[in-house]
Design a protein that fits this description.
The complex is a heterodimer of chains A (101) and B (181).
Chain A: H1 5-25, H2 29-54, H3 58-88
Chain B: H1 2-6, H2 8-29, H3 33-53, H4 57-82, H5 97-119, H6 133-140, H7 145-166, H8 172-180
Helix pairs in contact in B: 2-3, 3-4
The chains are: A mainly alpha (101), B mainly alpha (181).
Amino acid sequence: MTVGPAWYMLLAAGLFVIGIAGVLTRRNALIMFMSIELMLNAVNLTFIAAGTALGDLSGQVAVFFVLVVAAAEVVVGLAIVVAVYRRRGTANVDELSEMSG
Amino acid sequence: MADWISLPVNWVFLVLALVIAFAGVKVVTSRNLIHAALSLVGVLASTAALFLLLSAEFVAWVLVLVYVGAVLVLFLFGIMITRAPMGREVSLDNERRGLAAITALATFALLAGTSWVAFGDVEIEGVGDPITTGDLADSLLGRYLIPFEIVSFVLLAALIGGIALARKDRSPAEEAERTDA
C-alpha cells in the first residue's frame, strides 16, 4: 500500500493555506508574491496528483499552462514592485494607500 | 501500518512532505527576505521531486528550470533592488493575524475535506500505462494547440509589459524639455 493521491492533496492543501496566511499577514510585496507562488505550487501538486490517479493527461497540461502564466505574473508583478519602489522608496504595501477612499 | 512503513516510496513522500511544510512556513515567517527566497527554492525543489514520484517527469524538470532557474533569480534581483540593507526586518507583519488564522484554517478544512472525500480511497496504480513526455507533446500540439499558442502570446505580452513598467521614468521637467525640442 503506497501513499494515495489524497495524501498529496492534503499536503497541497497545507501548502495552500500557508500561502494564504502569508498573503494575509505579511506587509512586504515581495513576500506576498512568494506566498502566491506557494499557492500556485500547491495547485500544481493537486493537478498532478489527480492526473496521475485518474490516468489523465490533462492534469500535466494544466500544470504546464499554470507554470507559464505564473512566470508572466512574476515578471509583471516584480516590474510593478520595482517601479513603485523607485517612485516611493518602499515595498511595504500598507504604505501604498492613496487609492483607498 | 507495518506494510506502509516497509515501502521506501512512502518514506520518500514523508521526508519531502516534511521539507515542504517546514520550508513553506519559513517562507512566510522569515524576517530575512533572502532566507524566504531560499526557502522557496526548497519548497519548489521538493515539489519537483514529488512530481517525479508521481511519474510526471517533464513537468518536474520544467518546474526546476523555470522556477529554481529563472523566477528565483528574478526574486533575488527584486529583493536586491528594493531592499538595500539586506539584514533583518522588524515590521514585516501587519496586525490581522487572528483573521488570517481563521481564514487559513477554514480553507484548509474545506480543501482537505473535499479532496479526502473525493480521493480518499483511490490508489495510485503501479507502472501500468505511464504518461510519457511524448504523449504530453502530442496533446500540447494537438488537442491543446490553441491554448498553447494563446499562452505564448501571454508570455510576449508579459515581456513587453515588464519592459514598459521597468523603464526609467522621465521627470516632468525632462518630459517638458523633450516636447519643446
